[in-house]
Design a protein that fits this description.
Radius of gyration: 21 Å
Order of helices and strands: HEHHHEHEHEEEHEHEHEEHHHEHEEH
Largest sheet: 7 strands, mixed
Bound molecules: (2S)-2-hydroxybutanedioic acid
Structural class: alpha/beta
Number of helices: 14
Strand content: 5-15%
Oligomer: single chain
CATH architecture of the largest domain: 3-Layer(aba) Sandwich
Distance between the termini: 50 Å
Number of strands: 13
Number of domains: 2
CATH topology of the largest domain: Aspartate Aminotransferase, domain 2
């Protein structure tokens, strides 16, 4: 039966992670997968997470099934983290289910969209996170791209975004990244969020917002401003969120899907379909990650500690952005990389070609995703000179 299967290329991001691990070069630099690294290249467990885990170990009373929607405390606390004190919570227009990571949430969203409108096309930013395309296609949805990032200016192509979205038909879905756009680091400002909200109202398409980096851009509240503006103004939307990055819970696979509906009854109906989709995919989510997040967000002291740890990460990344631009200039890397300082979150494009990316890997053990996306957090005082000098050597050849 399996004889007809053809080999599949390795994942463009996770494949590099494995190659990096196997590389014996002591100078190797990993700028590939979106995992936060500290100044010595480690990804330690947050102190707030350790404390919550210790609490859980002492206080967990049962391993019985959680139910389709997962941990109710987590669902309520994460809804507040995303939407703030929003009237859609008060009026029961939003319901959240815990999911296995952000990817699990996106897959549930895709199946729900397919069930609601089998002919729906999902529109994604060009470029977007490579796995978006795989997730939506696996669910049988048609996927189209709309112009978003401009490689000539290393900024947004917002006029073209508007032009394309103004033709998206009723019943389709448009995906935006809430903040820290992966892979470009370029986000909408609040006026631009308003513009796309107005187009959605006119065209009657539905937003799907991927919020994987809340707290990594400008702050927890600031990074949710686009979502909250849409929640003020649109009747329906889906928000897929992840705790991988902001709680550093990558391998625990903890995320959420939030359904916003026209009114409490319609929201309940859509949510019951969401739970039905979940039942047929993985039945129920795992407990550990949600317990940790609920314990942190349910405690003032742990929340304060988590805020402090998240602020430190964000400040380090933002500092690195200017540091990298300066270092590249100092070491004679051709081109102007000042744009890196003005972008948000963990990623930016270097805008270099595939041959250079390959030479960096094979000759220098520097790992960059094939689109030229770099994980800014992978740079530190120890590897910055080597990175800039290697890049200068490759690009000046
Ligand atoms: C990334 O974009 O590198 C991360 O979101 C990890 C992944 O699953 O691709």
């Amino acid at each position: 039966m399996f004889d007809q299967l053809q080999p599949v290329p390795t994942d463009p991001i996770l494949g590099l992670m494995a190659e990096f691990k196997a590389d014996p070069n002591p100078k190797k630099v990993d700028l590939s997968v979106g995992v936060y690294k500290d100044e010595v290249g480690n990804t330690p467990v947050l102190k707030s997470v350790k404390k919550a885990e210790a609490f859980r170990l002492e206080n967990e009373t049962s391993k019985s099934y959680l139910g389709l929607a997962g941990n109710a405390d987590f669902n309520s606390l994460i809804t507040q983290l995303i939407f703030g004190e929003h009237q859609i919570i008060e009026s029961s227009r939003v319901k959240t289910a815990q999911t296995p990571g952000g990817t699990g949430s996106l897959r549930v969203a895709a199946e729900l969209i397919k069930r609601a409108n089998p002919d729906a096309t999902i529109w994604v930013t060009n470029p977007t996170w490579a796995n978006h395309l795989s997730i939506f296609k696996a669910a049988g949805l048609k996927v189209e791209e709309f112009p978003y990032f401009d490689f000539d200016t290393m900024g947004l192509k917002f006029n073209e975004t508007v032009e394309t979205l103004s033709k998206v038909p009723e019943g389709d879905v448009v995906l935006f990244h809430a903040c820290c756009h992966n892979p470009s680091g370029m986000d909408l400002n609040i006026e631009q969020w308003q513009t796309v909200a107005d187009i959605a109202k006119q065209q009657k398409f539905t937003f799907l917002i991927d919020s994987a980096y809340q707290g990594f851009g400008s702050g927890l509240e600031e990074d949710a401003a686009g979502i909250r503006l849409l929640a003020d103004q649109v009747e329906q939307m889906i928000v897929c969120s992840s705790c991988s990055k902001n709680f550093g819970l990558y391998r625990e696979r903890i995320g959420a899907i939030s359904i916003v509906g026209r009114d409490a009854i319609k929201t309940e109906i859509t949510f019951s379909n969401t739970l039905n989709v979940i039942r047929a995919i993985y039945s129920m989510p795992p407990a550990h990650g949600a317990d940790i997040v609920a314990t942190i967000l349910g405690s003032q002291d742990l929340t304060a500690l988590w805020h402090q740890e998240l602020n430190e990460k964000r400040e380090r990344i933002n500092g690195l952005r200017s540091f990298i631009a300066t270092k590249f200039a100092e070491k004679g890397v051709p081109g102007n990389f000042d744009f890196i300082a003005n972008q948000n979150g963990m990623f930016s494009f270097l805008g270099i070609d595939k041959a250079a990316i390959n030479t960096l890997k094979t000759d220098y053990s520097i790992y960059i995703v094939g689109s030229s996306r770099v994980n800014v957090a992978g740079v530190n005082d120890t590897n910055a000179n080597y990175l800039a000098e290697s890049l200068a050597a490759v690009l000046n050849k």
